[in-house]
Amino acid sequence: MPPLPAFDPHSFQNTALALTVSFILGTLIGFERQYRQRTAGLRTNVLVAVGAAAFTTTGMHVLGGEGAIRIMSYIVSGIGFLGAGVIMKDGTHVRGLNTAATLWCSAAVGACAGAGFEAEAGLLTLFVLAGNTLLRPLVNYINRKPIDERVTEACYRVHVVCDPAVAADVRERLYAELEKANYPLREIEILSEGDDEMELAAVLVPTTAAPNELDAVVQALERWDEVASCAWTVSTTT
After folding, report:
1. Of 77, 109, 144, which residue constitutes the final position of a domain?
2. Low-confidence residues of the chain, pLDDT below 50?
3. Which of 5, 97, 171, 179 is packed most tightly, with the most Cβ within 10 A?
4. Would residue 221 count as lying in a domain?
């Protein structure tokens, strides 16, 4: 068994500096996340940054620069498993992507500090904080704007309300009208079902569509006696 390496005050000083910088910078990132009540908050981001710094400094002390690079490559892939734990799917919406990306950046901050690039780690922290704070007004502005179906790739649905007894026939007619209009169909889903009526929704393949063409499809379906009502809606793709 090879002897354990002797205590090196210089290496210890470098490690202490890297961990301290990672702790401070991870606290800054985590504070913003905790303030907004995100899944991965203060402690999680601090631990990710400090852990990444510890792994990187250890690899550097054992194998030099090559060891640090090797450890960083494992950090980049390994942090993905932690990020996957904060991503949740709620219906058609996916939540937690920004939190997972922040964790990934916290690991990058720690890796930079662990490799001895404290200034770069600080600069990266500023960019992470700017992305999570300064860009929020711009994101909110974009999200509040109405969807322009002429230029936006979106998810279109054609809704049909009919009697459950004729649902099969209405489904075939819905498919035929959309095929005639050259709009590819992803699926036809049942949104609601009762004793007196059923609502079907034909989900089109995400694309751009012409409102007048979808209006023509709706008008053609409304002329059919078995269709109680018909309309089309548009939403952003996820």
Report:
1. 144
2. 1
3. 171
4. yes
